[in-house]
Amino acid sequence: MTYSFAADVFDFDRMGESLSPSIFKRFKKTVDEKKSLDADVADSIAAEIKKWAESRGVTHYTHWFLPLTGLTAGKQNTFLDKDENGKVISNFSGRELIKGEPDASSFPHGGMRSTFEARGYTAWDPTSPVFIVRREKGCILYIPSVFFGYNGKVLDKKTPLLRSLKLINDVSLKILKRFNQKVNWVKNMVGPEQEFFLVDEKDFFRRPDLKTLGRVMFAARPPKGQQMGDHYFGAIPDRVLRFLEVVEEDAFKLGIPIKTRHNEVAPNQFEIAPIYEEANIATDHNQVLMDLLTTTARKNGMVCLLHEKPFLFFNGSGKHVNWSLMDSNHRNLLTPGKQKNTRLAFLSFLAGFIIGINRHNDLLQSVLASAGNELRLGGHEAPPSIISVYLGDEIQAILNNMEMFVEGKIKKAPLIQFEDFVPPIFHDMSDRNRTSPVAFTGNKFEFRMPGASASLAFPVSVINLAVSDGLEEISRRLESADNERKIMEVVKTAIADHSAVIYEGDNYDRKWKEEAGNRNLYIPTSVPDTIDCLKADKNISLFETYSILKKDEIEARADIKIEVYVKTVEMELRVARYLLRAYIIPAALKNQEMLLGAIHGFPQEIINKNPSILDKQVEFIEKFTQKINKAMELLSLLDEDNEKLKQGTDREKAGLCSRTIRPHIIDTGVLVEKIEERVDHLFLEMPRVTDILFR
Which of 256, 257, 368, 400 could make a disulfide contact with 285, Cβ separation 3.0–4.6 Å? Predict the structure, then answer.
């Protein structure tokens, strides 16, 4: 069966076909000008949505939102109602489309409300189309929404994103107007690259750590890893290909424009990526895509792992965010263009970006800091946690020869002719520095720090906020520049003032950390300390100055991130103790018993002839026994950590988790690796990493 693109989405095209021209025009104006929706317009849209949804088998609807858990949520309702005579009817009004009322008491709020204050509201986000999610026994209409409390406090991740999109639109229009660029709007375009692992469902359920945490806590290093480079871009296994085909078909019906799929570097690691979309829709689509990956995998006897570091010895999983700006003429503002004014505008946007990232690099890190990313960043091809911007040779040449660039006298990179027997190809504006956290890659900036499980909403909000602040700075400086020469001087000075964040070298080089310190860039020491940056006066002032969030809303987000970090490490600690008690130590003792039994059963007559014949075996058992004893000592240490974790504030607990508990768990993992390598496969009652990744 074939489907049309976005068949399960009530998008603007479908709206235009079903609504009267006057209603649709008023709706579009409401969306473009970001104003409230009139009641009669809402009723007309609700009626058409209901008619369309019921024709596709929809029985329920939900206001779908992004609470501060980092997941998605929604309460499902039927279309059933009663008329004035008490008769059951099918009904869906404009009021029901616009507003929902979930119980807000159980969602994270960071102290912004009392537990007994339960009322919360969801409100339809009309810039993101409603869509249908199909389940085995029915279909549900999803209404993308914002979420806030009865007291008006923002309790979701979408609201700051929507505010940041308006902010970057307004400041971008101001700069474009300075260069006589006639446009109606500027949109933030985002393209996320979603990485993930797939494991067999049977293996998943036999590993307590995978079931509870989504990652393997303790394991022996497999003889073969990713060192041969034979998985990256290799042939996709048939079973995985069938799974991806189903995901892509469902995504196609939901209007998610999947462009790429391929094997990633680590065994059983893959990536799927859509075409760029407006940031709000891209964020919603990424949440839906993660849900598709996890639910479809289970239907195919597999489990999709979105943890940032499921396997210690292999690459982790990120979500590279490709970020750019597009105007109403569909021109990418991070491409130079052919006219002087467009080139000057390009330089201004480039300078504004650099100012924003340099000025607020600590804020970006605080938003991206998490328990999962702590394990991923800084190794195995993940960028380090120190923020820097890579521009590449061609952009550097433009900045060094700005006058020639504006005049159009810098030659474009030539076509590359590798061999006579292949056609020439276009040369990109920059190479790819895969060690850089933020890299210019031709006509966009690629942010490589976000973790695979993260929601895009708040990170993109903060990127937009930081860049908008940089663009405002450029806009102010340009007010006194009344000719091309002065404009270029403004850009040069601005970039020079904020060049500390520009780094063209190897970010894995040990010298970079020292150099970054000399440049006064923020160097993270721990996840809790980095999260604290959210509460810094300058960052709170930034959010409040641009009306993205209020002080208590920012502090609440920081407190929630700390709470989540503590609870995550607490679960890791419990799983670590359980694995040692129920799996690792019992398996080691059984193995020890087997070895001792072999020695005790050794023929005495052979020992009498050669008294030293068992010396090496006894030495092996002695060393193995020392490791078992050490495992028991570490278990006692972890038990003590568990008791300490019951005391203090969340912030104090977070310090204990980062400073003490995680190092203890890492030390335990090193020891368990040595034990597992020596334990017979019959005794360890859970699959090893070799079995999981190379089955």
Answer: 256
CA angle 302, 210, 265 (to 5 degrees): 65
DSSP 12: H
Q: Find, among 51, 122, 142, the residue nearest to 90 by Cα.
A: 51
How many residues in total does the chain contain?
695
Q: What is the dihedral of CA 378, 677, 672, 528, to 10 degrees?
A: 10
Q: What type of residue is 339? A: Q
Residue 171 carries which DSSP code?
Answer: H
Contact yes or no for 146/66 (Cβ under 8 A): no
Q: Is the Cβ–Cβ distance between 359 and 469 less than 8 Å?
A: yes
Taking the C-alpha atoms of residue 10 and residue 48, their distance in angstroms, rounded to an integer, is 9
d(CA 653, CA 570): 10
Beta-bridge mates of residue 145: 124
CA distance 638 to 193: 37
**Global pTM?**
0.94
pLDDT, averaged per 10 consecutive residues of the chain (695 residues), comes to 85 93 91 80 93 93 92 90 81 87 72 67 92 90 93 93 96 95 94 97 96 96 84 91 96 96 94 96 97 97 97 93 96 92 96 98 96 86 87 91 88 69 68 82 93 96 98 95 93 96 92 94 95 97 98 96 97 98 97 95 92 94 97 98 96 97 97 96 94 88
Indicate the residue type of 382.
A
Contact 565/528 with Cβ under 8 angstroms? yes
Alpha-carbon span 143 to 157, nearest angstrom: 16
Contact 190, 276 (CB under 8 A): yes
Residue 151 to residue 264: CA distance in whole angstroms: 46
Q: Which residues contact 621 (CB under 8 A, 6 or more apart)?
A: 592, 595, 596, 599
Element (H, E) at 50: helix 39-55
Could you give the 3-state DSSP secondary structure of residue 691? Answer: helix
Greatest Cα pair distance in the chain: 105
Give dist(CA 621, CA 604) in Å, integer. Answer: 19
Helices (H) and strands (E) in the chain, counts: 26, 18
From first CA to last CA, the distance across the chain in angstroms is 33
Task: Count Cβ atoms below 10 Å from residue 657 Cβ, excluding itself.
Answer: 27
